[in-house]
Amino acid sequence: MQTTNQIRQAFIDYFVGKGHRHVPSSSLVPGGGDGSLLFTNSGMVQFKDTFLGAERRDYTRAVSAQRCVRAGGKHNDLDAVGYTARHHTFFEMLGNFSFGDYFKRDAIHYAWELLTRVYKLPADKLWVTVYQTDDEAFDLWSKEIGVPAERIVRIGDNKGAPYASDNFWQMADTGPCGPCSEIFYDHGEGIEGGPPGSPNEDGDRYIEIWNLVFMQYDRSVLGSTEYADESAARAAYAEALAAGKVVVAPSASRTPAGDLKYTLTEYRMAPLPSPCVDTGMGLERLTAVLQHVHSNYEIDLFQALIRVAAELTDTSELSNASLRVIADHIRACSFLIVDGVLPSNEGRGYVLRRIIRRALRHGWKLGVRKSFFHRMVAPLVTQMGKAYPELAAKAQLVDRVLAAEEERFAETLDSGMKVFEQIAAKVDGTIAGVDAFRLYDTYGFPVDLTADVARERGMAVDMDAFEVAMNEQRARARSASNFGAGLQITAEHVEGLAPTVFTGYEHQSDDACVVRLLVDGQVREQIVGGDHAVVILDRTPFYAESGGQMGDHGQLTASRGGVRCRRYRQAGGRFSRARRPARGRTAARR
User: Is 411 in the same domain as 533?
Assistant: First the structure.
């Protein structure tokens, strides 16, 4: 049996032999200031500017095994992870790419040769799909490859808008896009499900393993119109469709005042400078086919991680969904930290924190009441460290970050779960938004974690009401400028200061320099016994209070005395709220 590592390497070796440059995986954080994506979610992301003609490389063919994350933003698989056979937060995308070099013919021939001659998949087990108007691809499959016409399926615009199809691919709402041809593997009559395009195509019999995207267009926003009335927006949408415009159904959102508005967006499809090829094949899916299993979690790599998780949680049933969640999430969390994402309460850091806490909650569900998740790092390095040396190089950092997050969340997880049980016992089917917000604000429960627990009990969360509570909190935060009673922070107070360096993932204590002192909103050169003050440091191991997570308590010790830290919060840097003891004096250093 071929291992996951062997299958990955065989893909790379094949295309290197066809004149492709092996390009290492890019970071999970998209580079180049690309704000359209939260995380790298496909192999082509690092080549986006090349497809657009904005960047030239010294090669025209490339092959990669790209690390990807789909959690948060438009591409979000988090809720389904652990409960299906093929959903993951982290996955590997094998891909070959042509930048104005070869196009459909060679891409199709390469794919067929690799699958049938290198991986030795039976040709009669493979089905393909093409975009409804892509006659060229249909003819290549039928006349040159020899796939019978009954195993080639044309797929139209099945998502309610022009160019909105399973066989028309786009990375995001805007950017490179084009028709695609997908290759499916037929597991046989013993598995439920129908061929692609059929009413029961969502079964497990026919599994997509490879997508060949023929990049021909750059999709950009031509303009958008907002409507206060939904019926008016729908009428404008129908009129635009009839006129042959490229539009999507109106999207609903709320104005700052809380009123609903409906936005109709029109797009332009411009030809790319030269046709390109972007292919993507999920390594986990391919490995499942080659190892003759029907779930990605049954492949060798996942089984190794699941066995470790079972040992750490003292769980005997290896098919337990919580073990799958833990095995999946350790990959996403570890590689996000490797790529510089740290847990926080905003942006990518908050997505990481959500994934970590979801894994910890599933450990709690299995009866674990001690630190365990960070101990999955070393086994992960064993499985993936050779393919991705950056993981092995930063394993100690990953371990420290996860251990620190476990320790923090452990303080509130047990009490938060007890509160959830109390709430659930009093409601009939739906957790109120205000209760979900309380779990978030007081116990640090991300709302999707609350929804996850609720779903296991056949319940739901009132997400609209939760968003209302969140918006109210944001409004309070914007209007409140007080750090604490009598302690006001303004932009002028921190002007000229570099952000405080957080060292809490490496150290429980640290040496630091006091760079500014504030008493009653005024900058002081020193504070004396009895003062309530803000102490600003150049570095600190203290965790900042934020988003329902209490900050650390601790002691600042100086040569002339000490300061007890009551609260620790962040506002443009990191700030300690402190009360001076009765003796001693602390001065700011310049």
Answer: no
